[in-house]
Amino acid sequence: NDELLKTFDKSIEEAWKKLHSILPRWVYIQYESNAKAFKGIEARIKKCDWYDDIKDQFEEMKKSITELCNLRTEVARQVVRRARRRSSYELQTEFHEKKAEHLIEDYQEVEENLPRESAATRLPSSPEDILSNLPFLSPEIQKELQRPDMMEFLAEHVKKHFPPIPEEDEIILQDEDAAPPEEPKLDRDPEVYQEEDIGPFDDSAEMPVFNVDRMRARLIFFVRLVNPVYGYRELDAKFKENGEWYVCGRCLLWKHTKPPGIQVKSKIYTNFMRHLYEMHTPWEDLRIQMITSNPKEFKCPSNLCTYMADSVDAIFDHCLEGECPEKELFLRIHRACIKKRKRDDEAERAARK
Questions:
Q1: 254 to each of 89, 200, 251, 262, how far by Cα in Å?
Q2: Which domain holds residue 350?
Q3: Is residue 244 part of a domain?
Q4: 147 in a domain, yes or no?
Q5: Contact yes or no for 266/275 (Cβ under 8 A)
Q6: What is the band of 308 on the pLDDT scale with cuts at 50, 70, 90?
Q7: How confident is the model at residue 136 (pLDDT cuts 50, 70, 90)?
Q8: Per-residue pLDDT tens for 28-63?
């Protein structure tokens, strides 16, 4: 059954690839690959001039994908129903088999024990019982903690090395002119302890391990901690300035290269963040570098190339398949973005299962 579902998933994925091959890139970027997305896709592309050229092909692929999705859903439901029936049948069979083993005396014993207090409600009477029952302790340690002299040793150790902490409401007054109190001489190993002053700590002769300015490292660490907070505050301030709309600044930078049908603003924070995450990849944001003074002309985003074209898609094709001197770089960027998108789609599909 799992293999059959995997076969359906693969067929649906291949069908979506064929559909995306006849549609613009923004459809793949903006919409998920599931049957529910057809309503939004169809509403958008019907407004485009080229829709009549692909209408029949689109309808045929849409019908094929919808049928595959419906078949997969029905198969998945059958698998779940069979599993539930099998599980229910096995439980009932097991119950009837064990039921014959119980005698009337067993039921009477259960009824007599019901009013009694359960052992689970009684707390351990001693600290060693609590310690010895901790699940993360090894059996050897649990056995040692059950020794009667072990708790006495621990209690003496705490009294000796950890003096009691004053209560919060207890005020200790000290004379400012009085000499500092002497540190109590505890029983310490003379080999690792000496009373005389050994001077300030000096590690100048030690081998440097962290070859970075410590203050700079602290600043970087602090910035990384607070950056999300300041970012959200700035976004919230702009949201209020724009009449409680999240406006995409990256889309505004795209200017006339923005594909048709893309929403520049949103009322919902999650939709806005998803738009930023899915639309403004390093590959798609290359549009900003394609803009020229002439709105009908576009240039290659590479500073080493002088190629010009009359459309954004033509420039993208040139970057991947043309004679661009930085073709390898653009190929790596494109592959990385596609790979990440596929990984996200697979994770979302797995979560829906």
A1: 61, 60, 5, 11
A2: 281-353
A3: no
A4: no
A5: yes
A6: very high
A7: very low
A8: 877 778 787 888 888 888 888 888 888 888 989 988
321-344 pLDDT, tens digit per residue, is 889 999 999 999 988 888 887 777
On whether residue 70 sits in a domain, the answer given is: yes
Is residue 6 over pLDDT 90?
A: no
Q: What are phi and psi of 299, to 5 degrees?
A: -115, 160
Cα–Cα distance measured from residue 40 to residue 44, given in angstroms and rounded to the nearest whole number: 6
Q: Is the pLDDT of residue 320 over 70?
A: yes
Using alpha carbons, list the distances in angstroms from residue 91 to 84, 85, 98, 281, 310.
11, 10, 11, 52, 70
Residues 126, 149: contact at Cβ < 8 Å? no
Q: If phi over 0 gives left and psi between -120 and 50 gives alpha, with beta otherwise, what is residue 167?
A: beta
The model's pTM: 0.40
**Last residue of a domain, which of 85, 109, 143?**
85
- Residue 241's contacts (CB-CB under 8 Å, 6 or more residues apart) are none
Please indicate, yes or no, if residue 122 is contained in any of the structural domains: no
How many domains does one find in the chain? 2
Nearest to 276 by CA among 243, 231, 240, 223: 231
